[in-house]
Amino acid sequence: MENAIQQLIDREAIRDLRTLYAHHLDGNNIQALSEVFAADAVVEVTVGKMEGIEAIKSGLQEAFALYDRDNRRSFPFMRKRPANSPSELQL
Hints:
The protein is an alpha+beta fold. It has a single domain (about 1-90), classed as Roll (Nuclear Transport Factor 2, Chain: A), CATH 3.10.450. About 45% of the residues lie in helices and about 15% in strands. It has helices at about 1-25, 55-65, and strands at about 40-45, 50, 80, 90. It has a two-stranded antiparallel sheet with strand order 1-2. A two-stranded antiparallel sheet has the order 3-4. It is elongated, with a radius of gyration of 15 Å. The N and C termini lie far apart (about 30 Å). The model has no long low-confidence stretch (mean pLDDT about 80).
């Protein structure tokens, strides 16, 4: 039973991490991705491989500039709630 509970907790932590990634990326808060990725993280996407947090942040910043066709500088489909709310992120 404890193992099953831990698995659920771990899955929820992964979901939270993915949500935080989307929140920072969509808000063009690239520097905050250090909260999401480890220093030695590796990201592989269609345009190539980025190794290390600085390369990831740089690569995503460049990609964001290419796709920000409307010059919005962010894509805020999410907003941050106060820290004491049940969930800090809201769609």
